[in-house]
Amino acid sequence: MQSIISTAYKNGCNALNTTGLVACYSFDFGSTFDNGPNHLNGTLVGNVTTVSGHLNQALLFNSNASYFYTGGLVALGTSNQSFSFSFWMKPISVTGGTIVHISVGPNGYSNGTTIWCVAFIGFHSSGKLIAQVYNSATVAVIGPTINLNVWTHVVETYSTTNGVTLYINGTLFGSTGATSYTASGVTDYIHLAYYGTQGSPCAAGNINPGQFMGAIDEFRVYNRELTSLDVSALANQ
C-alpha cells in the first residue's frame, strides 16, 4: 500500500497547485484516468502510444486522427470564467496542429443541439505556438517557435482582467490584455492533439488546425488564473 501511495504522489497531479484543479492527467502507463478531484476520465482514439515523458510516461500522437478527449467541464462552458491549462509537450512537427480543442460534444463539434467549438492552443503554419480564447472571434497571443523533440512546458491562463496569458517553460511570454470570453453556455469537452471527428469547421484563428504530432504529458485544467509563482512551480516539477 505504501508503494501505491508514493506512485500516485509522484505522478505530479497530487503534488503541486491543487487549488482550483478541475482535472489532471499524468498519462502514466498510458492511463487516461483523471487524478483530479472530479474523476473526469478520458478516452483515447486512434493510434496513441505510451512513451517516456517529462515525468514518468506520456502519450505520443503520431498518426492522423489520433487524440484524447474528456467531458464534464462545466466551468469552461461559462462565459468570462477564469481558467488555466498546463502541460508538457514534445513536438515532432510544428507546421500546424491543434493541441487543445474545446467543444460541446465528444465529436469535437456539437452535442446534437448546440454547435460550439474553438481551437485554444495549437501551431501556426510558421511553427509559432498560438494561445487564444473566443470572444465573437479569436483573441490570441502569438507565441514563439517551439523546438522539435524537446520537452517544453506550456501554460495558457485566462481572466477578464488580463485576458489570455502565455507562459513558456515557466516564463511569461505575452498577454492580450483585458478581454471577454464568450463560452458555449453548456458543459464542455476537451480534445488533445486533434479536433475530433467533426471539428474541422471550428473557429481556429491563427492556428493551422489538424493533427498535432508529438507527445503530451501532465495535462492540467484549472478553474482559476494561475499566478506566475504557480506556473514556475509547475515548470520546475
TrEMBL record:
Residues 81-229 form the LamG-like jellyroll fold domain. The keyword Signal applies. Keywords: Disulfide bond, Signal. It holds the Pfam family Laminin_G_3. Signal peptide: none annotated. SMART domains: LamGL. This is LamG-like jellyroll fold domain-containing protein. It comes from Adineta steineri.
